[in-house]
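Open question from group meeting: does this chain pack into something compact, or does most of it stay loose? Before anyone orders reagents, we agreed to write out a predicted structure and look at it together. Recording both the input and the output here so the notebook holds the full record.
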Amino acid sequence: MAADNKKIHQEKPPMASSSNASNPKSFKYQVFISYRGEDTRKTFVDHLYASLKQLGIHTFRDNEELEEGNQIEELFKAIEESRFLIIIFSQNYASSSWCLKELTKIMECEDGNQQIAYPLFYDVEPSDIRYQSGPVGRAIAKHKTNDQIKNWEKALQGAGNLVGWDLKNIANGHEAEAVNQIVKEISQELRSIRLGNDENVIGMDRWMQVLESSLGIGLNDKSRMIGIKGMGGIGKTTLARAVFNKLSSHFEGSIFIEGVRELSRKKDLCSLQELILSYVLNNENIRVGSVYEGERLMRMRLPYKKVLLVLDDVDDAKQLEALAGDWFKDGSRIIITTRDEKVLLAHGVNVNWIHDVSLLSDEEAMSLFCRYAFKSYIPDEGYEELSSEVVRYAAGLPLTIKVLGSHLRGAKKVVWRDALKRLETIPSQETLEVLELSYNSLEDDHKEMFLDIACFLKEFPKEHAVRVLDSCGFRAEYGLRILEQKSLIMILNDKYGTLSMHDRVVELGKNIVRQSHPHEPNKHNRLWIEEEIEELFYDDEGTEASTCIGLELYPKELSPDFIINGLGNLNKLRYLFLNGKHDDCFPSDWKFDESKQYFPNSLQYLLWKNYPGLSLPQTFRANNLVTLQLPGSKIVRLWESGERKVLKKLRHLHLNNTKIQTLDLGMTPNLEILELNGCHDLVEIHAPAGCLERLLTVDLRGCRFPVAFSLVNQLESIAVLVKVQCLEGFEFPVIRFEFQYFKRPLNSIGLVSDVVFLDLLQYDTLESVSGNLCSLQNLIQIKFEGPIPELPNDMDQLKSLQQISLLNTHIKRFPDSVWMLKHLKSITIFNCKHFEELPENLGLLEKLFFLSLCSTGIRRLPDSICMLKNLKILRIEYCGLLEKLPEDIGELESLEKLKLTKCESLGDIPYSICKMKHLRFLHLANCSQVEKLPEDFGNLKGLEELDIQFTGIRRLPHSISSLKGLCIFGSISLLRSCDFATEIQSSEKGTFCYI
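Structure tokens returned:
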């Protein structure tokens, strides 16, 4: 640090550079902040942390980085993995044993070289820390009986003698200015550190740790092959090089072959075999006549040396067969980087040792960019916002960050702005060239799929994308797998399996479409920009180029007639997506001119939201159409004037929320998916014999019951997924009858014995249900919702039933027949205010593991509940009339969760609860009458979470060290307890949450 009036005590020795440090350490964090939360968390520490983070300085503070429930050992690990250690000394710092333990660990790690500690004296004098006087002395005195007191006093004395900051001497004590100065000096210290091996691996530390764990350095087990995969430019080579440099000294021979893909094209594989043998055996005279001979030599010579081999940018399994066979000595390690996971799997690399490198975080990206643009970890003054824009554009891709950083180094702001503006239309060619290598390795059909996804299908659910691609003649499931293995797409692990693609890869796809005719969009085979589509439609002669179009239609921006009249000229169009945003996108009196060709007959996939026509145009033969989706449209019938065009290729028909009135399925003999959700106007579905043979899914939610029933009753195919939510009751008052699997035609009331799930909603009688439930021998789940007063008496006939749910019913109690259901595992009763008691024979349900009684009128639990030996979860929440629990509640030996939230009348907790050896969660929030916990509460050794907010509990029992979460908000009596601090501190492993 430069000399300043804030400096106190002796000077620091100069930092060791990579040249004079025997083993430069790789740090996960650049700064660690130690502080007393109640003093500075929301003030000085919060501002300091935000400023460090804003400048891309990777900083650890416990309430941000430490996960709830983690133990202090993980805090110690974070200290060990931090380069700079800042200690915020406040008046109450020494009153916390946790802070003192942190400090002791910091002083153990502080070496004035690779790890440096800096004290900051917030509202105490440095001498108070050195000599434990004043408020610091009073705070440390609280620990005089602790056997660690000597170590803590020594740590305080040592920290007090370090170079640091005295806050009152910085900017006259103004905290904001003090924070700015401290952050500036920390960044300068970071800048002064020679990066050495770390120069190009910003953000790679975590991956180096993962790789080192997989490599198992020092173990003499069987040789291992480790895969590093990821998209081009993500840093695979950089990561492999850093690991190689760090670990190569542990091996008898080592070699890093960079660019195997390119080298194997320029040279033959024999030369690469010679290279490996020469380096490992330290013999430059080795010559190989053929790949076979090379493999023989490697098998003969390499089993006697422990080798570290890196094969970078492999793209063919044959390369691995020739260079990395099963001939290595035990303890050897082979690292392979590739864009194509399939190469690794084909060679037999263990899937658990294949690591998919992720993109940089915003902080890491900023640090890396600044290294290239400013030779610093932070932007130069005045370039902060421009740097953020560049980082946003790069979207975490190291290659783009490095390229742009190098190009912009030393440039003026006007040049930066111009460069950013250019990137909006002209992407970085250096980035595209690297990414295009993956595209060029694809087969032709997979290239077409890639372009479709980049231009249209990014962020689509996988199921939808597969439907689109299959409709256009691709084998989508296999193709998506290939693209994913090539690291060109990602399939997110969300409920939709959403297709994702990096922004620069999307840019690559769109650039490939444009590059052959950059100034002639009418020759592009895919169009998604409104202006280019408009220009195309001005050409009345049509085009052979366009195969796919996607367009959002907004009123008054483009003439509807202009759009639809131009479509017929696109003779090669296979995919059309038009999204009419508003009902007034087309005039209400708009009609087809039946003499015009509106849709090209080449269409295979047609999706038009809010389609304006009452039918499809007569000139449209649709003989290639595979998928037709017209959601929210005005269509009344498929064809006008009774015309019958058989759509032999149509497999998916989606008319959700349309005005469709009649539908003849005889015209769609190969239909697999039929969606008519919300078609309230549908009065007739004609389904001739045999036309439903290939049907897999039918959605009839919102259709009239007679129409839905007439179709569903004809289903004969095995495992047809049917969704029905009828508007009218008629013969059977079922509102929702959803996700049922049928294996034979329905009977007269629409139920079959193979129904697995049944939801009965919004009705007040069971006259037509009672007597028919006995036919549902395979029913697993049943839900009753609505004002029903009682359950059928024949419930015992549901031999396979495992789950019962009652929601918002008027039911008072279960019929006796329920307790005969020997397979019942789960009972949920929610918001049933009239439900007032459970029967004494509850204990007969031997397999019950989940029981929930929330917002009911229950007053007591039967003693027989204690017989439920398999019960794991018991929820009795918002039951204001419940007064007590059974005395033997502790007999529930398997119980893991007991939730009694807001049971205001509940009194003492039974002593027997202390016998629940598997109890992990106990919630008593808002149980205002509960004033104490049993004395032996500490016997619950497995208890992890205790919620006693807004209770009358005055003190915590001793020995609660297993807790990981404690909520005490509103427990005034407990907070005022003189024993509270001691009790909390006795639990060293927990992470407590004072909400």
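Observations to bring back to the group:
The two ends are 40 Å apart (CA to CA).
The mean pLDDT is 81.
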